[in-house]
UniProtKB/TrEMBL annotation:
Residues 134-176 form the Zinc finger CGNR domain. This is Zinc finger CGNR domain-containing protein. InterPro entries: ABATE, ABATE_dom_sf, Znf_CGNR.
Length: 181
């Protein structure tokens, strides 16, 4: 299995959760988050327990990205190892939607467990295959949204084109002001 390709979508679940605190205020918001992440199936039961568990997971994942942004590789690894113990992986071979056989990390347990296993294992695989510096927090003040740097030259610094443009315009204006223009 080629982990960086196969598990990047799982790592993106962590980013989605971190960047969506407003969706963790009720079950409808959680359902929308799960739908966006491709984790919600019609008829799937989500509970207040799922909501509480994903709120807690979000806080833990934020600390992983903060440690990565601070360059503390050991802290990132320690935090991910702790999360891997809390959310053990249960791999299964799956085939659906006309796709060939492939690995899914879990299909059992409550919804929050399924989400957590995917997000944590995806991040752990990214860190081991690509490095801690691939986990980032947007450098456009005051944003601080999480992102995964999948660029070939490890150059990503912003969560979106919007933040990159805003930061570039601010830097340009600051230079002009210093030069008296």
């Amino acid at each position: 299995m080629d982990h960086p390709v196969d598990l990047t979508s799982y790592a993106e679940l962590a980013v989605l959760l971190i960047n969506s605190p407003e969706r963790l205020t009720g079950l409808e918001g959680l359902r929308a988050l799960l739908e966006e992440g491709g984790r919600y199936r019609p008829g799937c039961r989500i509970t207040r327990g799922d909501l509480d568990a994903l709120r807690d997971l979000r806080e833990e994942l934020v600390t992983v990205f903060e440690a990565a942004a601070g360059g503390d590789e050991q802290d990132v690894v320690d935090r991910l190892n702790s999360l891997l113990i809390q959310h053990p992986v249960q791999p299964q071979i799956s085939g659906h939607d006309g796709e060939r056989w492939h690995m899914h990390l879990t299909e059992g347990g409550r919804m929050a467990d399924q989400y957590a296993v995917g997000a944590v294992m995806g991040l752990a695989t990214m860190v081991t295959d690509l490095g801690v510096d691939r986990l980032g927090l947007c450098q456009a003040p005051p944003c601080r949204r999480a992102y995964l740097d999948t660029s070939s030259n490890r150059s990503r610094r912003y969560c979106s084109e919007r933040c990159a443009s805003r930061a570039n315009v601010a830097a340009y204006r600051a230079r002009r002001k210093v030069n008296g223009q």
